[in-house]
Amino acid sequence: MATFLYRLGRGAFRRRRLVALVWVALLVLAGFGAASAATPTSSSFSMPGTEAQKAFDLLEKRFPGSRADGATARVVFKAPAGRKITDPAEKAQVEKAVADLRSGSDQVERVVDPYQGQAVSQDGTTAYAQVTYKVSGMELTDETREALKGSGKAAQAAGLKVEIGGDALMAVPESGPGEVVGVVIAGIVLVITFGSLVAAGLPLLTALLGVGIGVSSITALANVLDLGTTTSTLAMMIGLAVGIDYALFIVSRYRAELAEGRERDEAAGRAVGTAGSAVVFAGLTVVIALVGLAVVNIPMLSKMGFAAAGTVVIAVLVALTLIPAMLGFAGRRVLPMGTKSRLFGGGRAKAAAAAEKPNMGTRWARFVLRRPVMVLLAGVIGLGAIAIPAGKLEMGLPDDGSQPVSTTQRKAYDMLSDGFGPGFNGPLLVVVDGGKAVADKTVNDIKGMPGVVAVTPPTMNKAGDTAMITVVPKDRPSSAATEDLVHTIRDKSGDDVLVTGQTAMNIDFSQKMNDALLPYLALVVGLAFLLLMVVFRSVLVPLKAALGFLLSVVAALGAVVAVFQWGWLGSLFGVEQTGPIMSMMPIFMVGVVFGLAMDYEVFLVTRMREAYVHGERPGQAIVTGFRHGARVVVAAAVIMIAVFAGFIGSSEQMVKMIGFGLAVAVFFDAFVVRMAIVPAVLALLGHKAWWLPRWLDRLLPNVDVEGEGLRKHLGDDASHAAGQGQTDPDADPERELVRA
To answer: Average model confidence (pLDDT) for the chain?
Structure first.
């Protein structure tokens, strides 16, 4: 593989105009497709195999013309102090607001007047109007949302308190400042790392081009493949992350090859042949993690995973072809000012002499080699302690009760809880596949169950063979008591009684995600283990990589539980309401963090493997790997942490949780696992770290990631190979590039 990639990189360097033209043409083509495609609507959401989904399917079949997944809203009215919502003046204002809701949009299916629908609290101070729409929340137009928001303004002017809850106010996700802040910080880190604006700009430019092609392609195919409006979010996040990382790896190795005295085209070919091999296998691990989301068997997640995986493939191809082409255009400007004359003007001996002082990576690796047991215990015990709260993980989906207290959704939620009880914020919809007698019996059975506040009379369809019943729980939607009530109704009722609604859907979704976690982990970690075994020609190195990843993810989950479920340091991160952890969080973290963690593992350890294969002792190979790779891995990790941390400032609890969890996970994995635990374990294992049974060695394909076959192909003599493999551990040819 190294030889093929060498030819690819050198060819791209020499034919840089053609390569650049092809990529620009692809960007233009994808952009044209996205611009000419119809505006994507929300993706159809389904959960095959769940009871809630079966109930929705039955409703669509037996109640034609109605959409069970249509958006809903509750406009809550509260009378001024000392007055009742049933007083004539207040009642007139409420009825006017109801009339405005009915005439405000043609997307409205029905509006239930609170005085006719018995939606007035017992103390007479609070009432709510239930609004049902013909389309889902993501499909509502801006005009419909504005009409909903403006429906209570007259009542507010008259002294009533009016707040709005429900999923009708759910906005289409938009790119916030997180991506912009992340790109700016990435640029700063790259400039510090490379000491050159041109070298720093290349990873940013190529990563943005790759993301542009990927996201534009997703937009162009959104309606055809039912990808919806949210699929590109994950693709943009992952594509930007790996795009910068992969380009960073190639550019860094190119500069190192220049420092060794290579000609520019030769340096480009060798950079792609060596670091490019690491990029290919790192990209494969990310693709495995994303495609593996299909294990959950939720079509929306599967499509998001496949779309993001496609963007990763584009990032790999960009790194292997466009980066060497751009290096050809950049010339010597990729080097820091002050080093060009020394490296290209006959002063390489002076540059090498100035580079003998060990860098930070060298000093850190030597410290770990002197105290491997202490470093290993400190890392494992520290992450283990942080992971303890993960044992109390409670999963669920956020509702309006988790919104910031300043939002109208949260105020409406609290007003309903105070006036009617917490359960009114999450009623259950029970579907009975039977006639009136069966429906009446079901109503009586549910009324006698603990935790039930109210049960409405059954609503029959025209054929009289299916009924809908609304059940109001005693507790809030995301509580364990409400979940127990759902299970009780299902367990004590026959197969002809199905429980659905938003609350039941959330419960089923959380259960489905929980059930899929272990199979997903087994698939992703198992396939990656096999892949890394091929890369490193070792059994223990991939095992160590997988165990280290699991440790960092569990520790990150522990931190998420401590902050968002228990409230520790919650005020520091703007957590206003503690509650269950979003049910998507564990699998989402596994998929994203696993891909990034394996990037760092592959790039760092392949450098060690390369040095070991070329004759260095195990300890010296660790130092060599850190001398060349630590700075790049640290820069990549800092960039990713900054990108993810930018989302912690979001007002959306779910976005805040994702940003915090991913930032902490990358920090733990990059700085504790890869930079501390990995070298400590390798130091303790010595030669055994690279052991592979002979029978397995014969079975596994030789992909030549360390470039041994490439060296033979290029005819490097033994003395040159030894000179590269047995250099003074203090020597760092590239250090002169960065120090200048």
So the answer is: 81
How do 467-473 and 452-455 pair as beta strands?
antiparallel
Please give the Cα distance from 118 to 114 (Å, whole number). 6
Residue 103 lies inside a defined structural domain of this protein: yes
Is the residue at 321 inside a domain? yes
> Does 64 reside within a domain?
no
Q: The domain spanning residue 129 has which CATH number?
A: 3.30.70.1430
Q: What is the CA radius of gyration of the chain?
A: 30
Is residue 719 domain-shared with residue 696, that is, in the same domain?
Answer: no
On the question of pLDDT at 377 being above 90, the answer is yes
Query: Positive or negative CA dihedral for 63, 69, 71, 75?
Result: positive
Q: How far apart are CA 476 and CA 426, in angstroms?
A: 7
CATH of the domain at 282: 1.20.1640.10
Residues 616 and 726: beta-carbon distance below 8 Å: yes
**CA distances to 395, 557, 573, 580, 658 from 392, in Å:** 10, 10, 21, 10, 19
Residues 322, 237 within the same domain:
yes
Residue range 405-432: mean pLDDT, rounded: 87
From the CB of residue 539, how many other CB atoms can be counted at a distance below 10 Å? 18
In three-state form (DSSP H/G/I as H, E/B as E, the rest C), the secondary structure along 90-147 is HHHHHHHHHHHHHHCCCCEEEEECCCCCCCECCCCCEEEEEEEECCCHHHCCHHHHHH
pLDDT at 356 over 60: no
Q: What is the pLDDT of residues 281-332, one digit of tens each?
A: 888 888 888 888 888 888 878 888 888 889 999 999 999 999 999 988 887 7
The burial of 393, by beta-carbon neighbours within 10 Å (0-12 exposed, 13-18 middle, 19 or more buried), is given as middle
**Per-residue pLDDT at 588 exceeds 90:** no
**Interhelix angle for 197-225 vs 323-330, to 10°?**
150
Closest CA to 685 of 633, 624, 630, 617: 617
pLDDT of residue 66: 60
Task: Write the single-letter amino acid at 707.
Answer: G
Q: Give the model's pLDDT for residue 177.
A: 57
Beta strands 428-432; 108-112: pairing state: unpaired
Check residue 170 and give its pLDDT.
67
- 243 within some domain: yes
| Count of domains observed in the chain | 3
Paired residues of 469 in beta bridges: 430
- Facing residues of 428 across strands? 471
pLDDT tens for 107-153 read 888 888 888 877 888 888 999 998 888 877 767 788 888 888 888 88
Confidence of residue 734 (pLDDT cuts 50, 70, 90): very low
Q: Do 673 and 739 belong together in one domain? A: no
Q: Say yes or no: 327 and 399 in one domain.
A: no
Helix axes 264-291, 323-330, angle to 10 degrees: 150
Whole-angstrom distance, CA of residue 5 vs CA of residue 539 = 26
The H or E element that residue 430 is part of is strand 428-432
Of residues 16 and 654, which shows the higher confidence score?
16
Of 546, 548, 552, 558, nearest to 521 by C-alpha is 546
Which domain, by its residues, includes 587? Answer: 358-403+517-706
- C-alpha 728: how far from its chain's center? 42
- Which pair of structure tokens corresponds to residue 438? 């069966």
pLDDT over threshold 80, residue 539: yes
Helices 299-317 and 231-259, axial angle in degrees (round to 10): 20
